[in-house]
Structures are given as C-alpha cells and as structure tokens.
C-alpha cells in the first residue's frame, strides 16, 4: 500500500513539474509576446511617421548629431523599439524603462535607467530574457561582428554595429558603465549593451553583447532598408 501511494505521489509530482515547465516555456512566452505587440502598437500610435515612404537617398546623408529623447523616470514607460535582423526579418521588441520583473516578464527589453538614452554619448544598456517571458534575447549568442542593431524612437532610427560578446558573473555591473567595463573612463562614443542570462536555460552567468553607433536618421527620413518591412508591419498594426 505504501509503495502504491508513493508511486501515485511521484506521478502527481511529475505532472505538476511538467505543467510548470510548460507554463514557463510556452505560456509565459505567449503572454509576453502579446503584451509586447500591444506596447509597440500603442507606441506607434504616437509616432509621427511619414504617410508615404520617402524616396530612397542616392547617397548616405549626414543628419548631424542625433536627437536624443530625454531620460524617462517612469518605470514601465515604453519609448522605443529594437530591430535585430540577425534574429529574423520580422524581429522587433519594445524597449521600456526599468529592469524589474514587471517590465522584463511582460515587455521584452528593459532599459537600465541610469544608462544613456538611444543616440546619446555613453552606454544605452538594456536587459532581456532568453528562454521565458517572450525570450526577447534568446538568439543573442548568434550575433556576428558587423551585425546591425537598430533602435527606433519618436525622434528617429539609431543604427548600432555589433562588436563582441563577453560572458561575465552577475556582479559585473561595470558592463553598464558609460564606457563598458571601464567605469573611470569618459565616454566619447555611443554604445549599446545587451544583457541577458547565461547559459540559455540557466542564470549562473550573464552574456553581454556590445555595439557602437554607426549612424542615425530622423523619423521623417523613413527607416533603414534592412528594417523597412518590420517597421511597416508595426505601423499597420498600430493603426
């Protein structure tokens, strides 16, 4: 009798664990992806996008120093969208102020509030999950030097070029410094830092991807060609 009861308890425990895993790896992603799309659509309703696609420029244009959004002090405020073609032609993820669970578990990418805003000199640093809650940075390990990472805000499009990846321990907060890993340095470049857990199904370490801004263009100039289709899809969904 005791063996039978123990066996039934083990079966029940196995079912509970299986349901928990399914909830973590499937349901949380479903909920987060839906919340991310809603956040993007709401944001796009506030964007002053050109009605007709601009004519492509015959040569690269210099738009001067990038316009930079003022820092947001309101956690949970979505202010931008990140596009990473390496992650898929339709990849886009909202960027929201804050890196607490309320943001990261629902809204894709969270911006470390003490770091720079997109386009500013310094380090624009964001965090995201890999295997749960929308897994916004699951393919972070697939980035190749030279890959482009685009950030869209109400002011324009900021084009960052990926340089390298580093695996660090969770206490390495210096990766968020204005010059990543060099907290005493004075920045002269515009950095983008992506942070996530490592390995993919664990959190013992952090995987950090670094990029440097290459160019920017205002919103009314239209999106860079590499993300035009993804931007158009977001625009159509937001209207």
TrEMBL record:
The chain crosses the membrane at residues 9-27. The keyword Ribonucleoprotein does not apply. GO terms for molecular function: hydrolase activity. Signal peptide: none annotated. Coiled coil: none annotated. It comes from the Bacteria. NCBIfam families: class_E_sortase (NF033747). This is Class E sortase.
């Amino acid at each position: 009798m005791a063996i039978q009861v123990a066996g039934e308890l083990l079966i029940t425990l196995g079912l509970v664990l299986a349901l928990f895993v399914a909830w973590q790896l499937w349901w949380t992603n479903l909920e987060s992806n839906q919340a991310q799309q809603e956040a993007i659509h709401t944001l796009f309703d506030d964007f002053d996008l050109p009605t007709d696609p601009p004519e492509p420029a015959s040569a690269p244009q210099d738009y001067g120093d990038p316009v930079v959004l003022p820092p947001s002090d309101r956690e949970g405020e979505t202010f931008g969208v990140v596009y990473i073609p390496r992650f898929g032609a339709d990849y886009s993820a909202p960027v929201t102020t804050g890196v607490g669970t309320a943001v990261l578990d629902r809204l894709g990418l969270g911006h470390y509030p003490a770091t720079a805003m997109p386009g500013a000199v310094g380090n624009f640093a964001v965090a995201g999950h890999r295997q749960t809650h929308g897994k916004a940075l699951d393919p972070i390990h697939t980035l190749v030097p030279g890959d482009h990472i685009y950030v869209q805000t109400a002011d324009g499009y900021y084009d960052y070029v990926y340089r390298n990846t580093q695996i660090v321990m969770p206490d390495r907060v210096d990766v968020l410094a204005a010059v990543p890993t060099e907290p005493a340095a004075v920045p002269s470049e515009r950095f983008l830092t992506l942070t996530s857990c490592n390995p993919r199904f664990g959190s013992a370490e952090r995987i950090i991807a670094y990029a440097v801004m290459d160019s920017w263009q205002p919103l009314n100039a239209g999106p860079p060609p590499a993300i035009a289709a993804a931007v158009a899809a977001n625009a159509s969904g937001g209207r």
